[in-house]
Amino acid sequence: MNYQVLSRDEHFQRPGPKRILALDGGGLRGILTLGLLQTIEKILQERHGEPKFRLCHYFDLIAGTSTGAIIAAALALGMRVDEVIGHYQMLGRQVFSRGWFRSGVVRARYDENTLIRHLKRIFDKDRTLGDESLQTGILIVTKRLDTGSPWPLGNNPRGRYFKAKPTDTWISNADYPLWKVVRASTAAPYYFDPESISIAAERGKKAVIGTFVDGGVSPFNNPSLQAFMYATLGGYHVNWKTGHEQLLLVSVGTGVSDPSQTSSILAAKGAIKALFSLMDDCASLVETVLQWMSSSQTARQIDRDIGDLQNDLMGDAPLLSYLRYNVTLSKDEVEALRPGMSDRQITSLGEMDNPGALDALLELGNAAGEQKVKAADFPAVFDLQGSS
Predict the structure, then answer these.
(1) Helix%, strand%, coil% for the chain, nearest 5
(2) CB 343 within 8 Å of CB 16
(3) Which of 74, 127, 212, 215 could form a disulfide with 84, with the two C-beta atoms 3.0–4.6 Å apart?
(4) What is the largest CA-CA distance in the chain?
(5) 3-class SS of residue 267
(6) Per residue of the chain (388 residues), what is the pLDDT tens digit?
(7) 247-280 b/e (C-beta count within 10 Å ≥ 16 → b)
(8) Burial of residue 204, with CB atoms counted within 10 A of its CB: 0-12 exposed, 13-18 middle, 19 or more buried
């Protein structure tokens, strides 16, 4: 092995260039993310000459929102991408089974008990956010509904709320059950009921319970910008250096649906449709800001006015190297990547809760990975060094 396998604390605290992987929310479209990740894993595995290579060896922080939180937690535990795919397919087909009495209006569209059972199976009901079986840094984005504030929950051992002192009344983030944190991040309104987590307990008083929903209803359904802030803002106590040779952020999407082609029942529900439109606007803003502050080999045209921002830069020098991989689920791009799909099949790809689209989405992610992800995208300065 020509690289050193680090512990969680070494990923956070060892000096040198740092690498972040950020995974979007998007329901069952997360399997498209996994298709792209297979190519990334293969490229990095070949780069480091080790068949047992895992993404948790390369990335010092893996961030995820909603479905991205499921994938992030599994990768941080040391799972191979194909192993995560197996879990994901089973979860997707069993959790997203519709009942005639669940409309998503009076009752959540899906029963969270099935999801909880699978999360406990994958992550172990007794494992916590602070468990050292998490082999690298992890950041899960959720939103506390009762206060209206985004809650990025990470396992940085130097974090302010990671470990409570005996005199504190709040509960350590390190003690939150991992499955609950992931479940909170996936509690999308309309689809699932919120998740409750005990956040404070003072002797003789009633415990304080936080009510959490999907991090996708914060500005960070694409968690890339939140992950960058977590890594570099002093208040989070991670304190990584910025610079295009100091920090690499790899952001992977779940596909951008084409609003003109959606056949989902959501199209008939104005408030829900507006929410998803706002999420898309936030995601576009996140990409714009990151391209503005970075050196990027995958920069896309944001719009016809500002282009890809490669002639613009926030500040005197890039704050990071930035890669973004995603697929637009339009007829033209889908047909270019995976010819032969019917219009009805293409439309189904944009739905976030259609188990029938899992296989096609995975194939699309694989094809996009082969076409879009290049070994040259990953600068040599970020290669892992040393030997174990």
Answers:
(1) 40, 15, 40
(2) no
(3) 74
(4) 65
(5) helix
(6) 678 899 999 999 999 999 999 999 999 999 999 999 999 999 999 999 988 899 999 999 999 999 999 999 999 999 999 999 999 999 999 998 755 444 444 456 788 899 999 999 999 999 999 999 999 999 999 999 999 999 999 999 999 999 999 899 999 999 999 999 999 999 988 888 999 999 998 776 788 999 999 999 999 999 999 999 999 999 999 999 999 999 999 999 999 987 655 544 444 456 666 667 778 889 999 999 999 999 999 999 999 999 999 889 988 999 999 999 999 999 999 999 999 999 999 999 999 899 999 999 999 999 999 999 999 999 999 999 864 4
(7) bbbbbbbbbbbbeebbebebeebeebeebbeebe
(8) exposed
Q: State the catalytic residue, choosing from 24, 60, 214, 353.
A: 214
Q: Give the rounded distance of the alpha carbon of 388 from its chain centre.
A: 29
Task: Transcribe 9-24 into DSSP letters.
Answer: HHHHHS-S-EEEEEE-
3-state secondary structure of 210: strand
Answer for the pair 127, 133: CB distance below 8 angstroms, yes or no.
yes
**Which residues lie below 8 Å from residue 84, measured CB to CB, with a gap of 6+?**
34, 71, 74, 75
Catalytic residue among 24, 60, 66, 258: 66
Based on the residue annotation, tell me whether 295 is a catalytic residue of this protein: no
Angstrom distance (rounded) from CA 90 to CA 140: 22
Give kind and range of the element (H or E) at residue 138: strand 137-144
Which residues are CB-neighbours of 366 under 8 A, at least 6 positions away? Answer: 35, 38, 39
Annotated catalytic residue 284: no
What six digits make up the tokens of 360? 């096609």
As given in the structure block, the two tokens for residue 287 are 């990409």
27 close to 353: Cβ distance less than 8 angstroms: yes
Tell me the two tokens of residue 281.
């606007």
What residues form DSSP beta bridges with 23? 64, 252
Question: Cα–Cα–Cα angle for 136, 116, 110, nearest 5°?
Answer: 125
What kind and span of H or E run contains 87? helix 81-95
